[in-house]
Please model this.
Amino acid sequence: MTSSVTSLHLLDGGLLEVESSVVVPGSAFGRRIAVPIQMFLVGTTAGYVLIDTGNDPGVITDPVGTWGAELATAARPLMEPHHHPAEQLRLLGLAPRDVKAVVYTHLHHDHAGGGRIFPDAVHVVQRAEHRWALSPDGHAGKAYVPADFTRTRWTLADGDWHMLPGIQLVMTPGHTPGHQSVVLWDVPDLGNVVLAGDAINTASCVEENLPPGIATDSVTAVQSMHRLTALAAATDALLVTGHDLALFEAMPKAPEPLRKVGHRPARHHAPMLDLAAGA
Model:
């Protein structure tokens, strides 16, 4: 099947200041670090598809009023007006009405906050994620803001889905029960691309074989990470992690198209089997 993907742009949603171990568990506990908020605009022959929508733009001027004091303190948004999704689209000569579909890796506040900006788009999330976000267990609900997703008309995916030619949704639970990653095939000037979302926060998670610092199921999260790193290795794909500031800073951002960069990629922790050595 010929891929329908014609372009890929990284949109800059600003930064979040969080405690280090929520990104990579056990790392510099108590130290605050900045992590990027990424959105990806995929051009296709059928129209534009946006992957994730970043923070609610209301946090630009009123984080506490938008999120409440607890979340706004735990995840302090460093977001300016030019990080608004509509402003990022404007860099490409586009407007929210030009986005035909929005795909969410999951519904945490830093991925689903801008969904209301796209009232005419088809909004796609995994059914398992939608169900969990509406009624999460205990403390696991603190990263969800119901206003981000309770008024949206959803198209619910049930597991892996070849959504459009060249755009494949891949279930990667663990960070949340319904997390999904997005694989793009045959992107011009890029080849194959794996957008991990929060299934892999940083290259350090891969290298140290660690789940995200926030995970509803750590064992499943590591298995999902292995699935993505193995897929990327087998298809020679660019693997883009979810909150890696060094990678984010190295990658071109809109209005430039995304391209491969010299930043050291995340690599699978396990070596390939050497049959000759075992003979």
